[in-house]
Amino acid sequence: MNEGAFELPAVAMTDRTTHVVEVKRGPHPLTLVVCRFPLLAGKSLRQVAQLRIAEEMDRLDGYSIVVEGEAAWDGVPALEFTSRWRHDGGVVYQRQAYLALGGRWLLFALSTAFENRAAADAWFEQIRESVRLRSDA
Q1: Domains of the chain (ranges plus CATH)?
Q2: I want to staple 116 with a disulfide (CB 3.0 to 4.6 A). Which of 10, 28, 107, 124 is the partner?
């Protein structure tokens, strides 16, 4: 981790590290979450993304997909989704990317208030264009 290093016992484990970065920009912060999960046996990346989206539809008020597409993140095929939902009297806007890499899948999710969506789109596109992935990590 950035702040240091440590050793763990030599046992089977699953790395489910999550990174959360909040960027304060005026009245509407941008929140970037990057998660990693093991790929589910027999499931494609599209199936994994659809399962996650179904969970969000159940959990988040008024959740809907606005745009769905494909892209390349550092040469790795990715599924991208733009969504929105209601929260605390407002609307949340989110861009997501799902990537399969080295036996796991990664989720990049950038969220903000709906009225700040142009900034979120610009940040998301910059992240996509600048990301450098390591399949050995």
Answers
A1: 18-130 (3.40.1000.10)
A2: 28
Element (H, E) at 130: helix 117-130
pLDDT tens digits, residue range 17-42?
788 999 887 789 999 999 998 888 88
3-state secondary structure of 15: coil
- Judged on CB neighbours under 10 Å (0-12, 13-18, 19+), 30 is buried
0.85 exceeded by pTM: yes
d(CA 47, CA 51): 6
Output the 3-class SS for 60-73: CCCCEEEEEEEEEE
